[in-house]
Design goal:
The protein has helices at 4-7, 33-51, 67-85, 90-113, and strands at 22-23, 26-27. It is mostly helical. Helix 2 runs antiparallel to helix 3 (67-85) and helix 3 (67-85) runs antiparallel to helix 4.
């Protein structure tokens, strides 16, 4: 089933284990908390762009606007950013701030359209 992997991050069981020690072939001990937070931020930002209708859903290729979900994703990025900002170099921190700024500006613009 195509959707099964999206609902089960361990996939079909071939790549992950039921004990939570591995996700899609990556042993959890190999992934730092900072890396995971950065991954969550990137995933949430992608969902925010999609929810604002600025990019198509990668699976369905449909463009839908759901500003409530966009707001949740942007707020989550905003909450997670300070967690890792201190561990970033100046360039990375600047890119993170720019991402958050761009998300917020686009959200305001899309909200005006509604």
């Amino acid at each position: 089933m195509e959707n099964e992997d999206a609902q089960n991050p361990q996939g079909s069981g071939e790549e992950g284990t039921d004990d939570g020690q591995s996700i899609q072939g990556f042993p959890l001990e190999a992934l730092t908390s900072n890396y995971l937070v950065q991954w969550f931020i990137a995933t949430l930002a992608a969902k925010a762009w999609e929810s604002m209708g600025l990019v198509a859903n990668p699976l369905s290729q449909e463009v839908k606007v759901d500003l409530k979900q966009a707001r949740v994703a942007i707020d989550a990025v905003s909450a997670l950013a300070p967690v890792i900002e201190g561990d970033m170099d100046a360039e990375e921190a600047s890119r993170l701030k720019a991402l958050l700024r761009d998300l917020r500006i686009n959200f305001v613009e899309k909200s005006k359209d509604s």
